[in-house]
Amino acid sequence: MEKVRLGIIGVGNMGTAHLNNIMARKCPEIEVTAVADLDTARLDNARAIVDKARAEHPEIPEIATFTDAMELISSGQVDAILVAVPHYDHPRYCIAGLQAGLHVMSEKPAGVYAEQVRELIAEADKHPDLLYGLMFNQRTNPLYAKMRDMVQSGELGQIRRTSWIITNWYRPQAYYDSGSWRATWSGEGGGVLLNQCPHNLDLWQWITGMPCKISANLHFGKWHDIEVEDDATVYVEYPNGATGTFITTTGDAPGANRFEIVMDGGTLICDGNSLILRKLEMPEPEFSKTNKVAFAAPKVETITVDCTGFGSNDQHVGILNALADAILHGGKLLADGREGIKGLTLSNAMHLSAWLGKPVDLPMDDALFKEELMKRVATSRRKENVNSVISDTSASYNI
What we know:
A nine-stranded mixed β-sheet has the order 14-13-12-11-7-10-9-8-15. A six-stranded parallel β-sheet has the order 3-2-1-4-5-6, with helices on both faces. The protein has helices at 13-23, 40-56, 69-73, 90-99, 114-125, 142-153, 173-176, 198-208, 284-290, 315-329, 340-356, 366-378, 386-391, and strands at residues 4-9, 30-36, 64-66, 80-83, 103-106, 132-134, 159-166, 213-220, 229-237, 243-249, 257-263, 266-270, 275-280, 300-304, 360-361. It has two domains: 4-138 and 314-336, 3-Layer(aba) Sandwich (Rossmann fold); 141-304, Dihydrodipicolinate Reductase, domain 2, CATH 3.30.360.10. The chain is of the alpha/beta class. The radius of gyration is 22 Å and the shape is globular. 45% of the residues are buried. The protein is 35% helix and 21% strand.
């Protein structure tokens, strides 16, 4: 195999973005050979994108189009699939792809609730020769890659506190009105935590590890006419006694992005554009134990951290090129799909905490979360999909 033949399932916003990147020759070891979508207008748009690229690069293959994702999966025309559909269907098509002997890349999140994602992981484990990856493109960001390295190395001691204010996910009402599945329990399964923040929740746990207790205050339809959360303030506790906060919304304009990690030896501050270390001359536990002056504090040096050599700015393209490298040359995925359960568990626990009005311990009760979610699905404003989601939350209502 010289190139990976890729099938894209769902050519809406993200699926089209991936198609454009590949047609722009940014992924030299991938060629799109098929796409699937229920919307024939989207299929026509995908053909137009490919035809335009072929006019300049005749070696680009024509694409097959399908209105049924399962037909694409069984067509024999692809080696791998990229799943870019509404959230409930992510596990369904990933499982089908693996069972058909295909490598799988999925858009985030891994699914809507942990129980269905555990089924997907179990299926992936049955196929050690196949790859299952997630589109966690923010892991390619040099700032976060370096941040993780510094935390995981232990050079600054233990984590004492984490704080992420991530409110630059602003969305106007028109965004939510752009699709009937958006911002509904039956169509999307959640709001800002499940749609915009999977990247941040993944990075949070990837860098600092998983907490053991979560207490969340969520506001549902606070800033928009929607039924899911668009504002969240969350408090967590870690096994070592550290604490953390996570604040997000789609209602702030302008928003902010500030991620702080306080450790024994100093504080890392990432504002999305730079990484700053406020390094203590002496670790705080040692200073507090030896100092004899009542109002003294450790001396601090402010350092702009050099992130050269960590990550890249390739984002989605980097994830796809890593997939191709792993398939063709035995390289490594940037984000194994099995890791998606961690960030999803965080959002599930946040929802459950808000619904129950009390803290939730991790590991959480996955069955209880699904039960509570289905109560909300049953009264969702997107009525046409309610019954299929309740009976089979992998229902193919939309590809």
